[in-house]
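Human: I wish I could look at a protein chain and see how it folds. This is the protein in question:
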Amino acid sequence: MLIETNKKPYIILNCAMTLDGKIATKTGSSEISGELDLIRVHELRKEVDAIMVGINTVLVDDPKLTVHKIPANIENNPLRVIIDSKARTPLFSRVLNSDAPTIIAVSQLAHPEKINKLNKKTEVIVCGKKQVDLNLLMDKLALNGVKTLMLEGGSTLNYSMIIANLVSEIRVCIAPIIAGGKESKTLADGEGVQYMKEAVKLKLKKSYNLGEDLILEYQVNTQ
């Protein structure tokens, strides 16, 4: 059961990673978890109000961000939220199709012409000066009825959301593979903390196997 709040959305960061913590190779390849985990992910998509990714995910993967690995109706698709400070979302992206509503969050640096073109396809929210203000965006989403949100971000967006104390829960699928690569993406990159004592603390809630994969569910300690 997901926990709902009356303020910011309850946010679940979900990702699949290799045993050495990689969520994608330097080329963007991210086929990591097995079929059972993909079903788990789509069951979670069906349960939440919204799903959020960063612009790099859109540019590299062109995802649909819908529920399609399990039986579902179009009404089961969550709101799609794209973090896109400079309004770089291609107009032919699959997140702009009619399968589900989409919000593109941009900053004031985004070119007005790009915003106007995107506005003809979907809803655009200007939220922040040089980059998207994630706290403000979460407030806006909450006012629009989003109580639960699934974060399928890349490593930079994941870190930004975690360090801003916006993530309530983390669910990780660990696949029995090792990718290596100093340029490969990890669960959370970004600037990082200076000392381990500053690291974000987690509490293990649940762990179980799905085929050959291991699922770990953590509550984020925001204190």
In short: Residues 60 and 68 are 20 Å apart (CA to CA). The chain has one domain: 10-221. The chain has five helices and eleven strands.
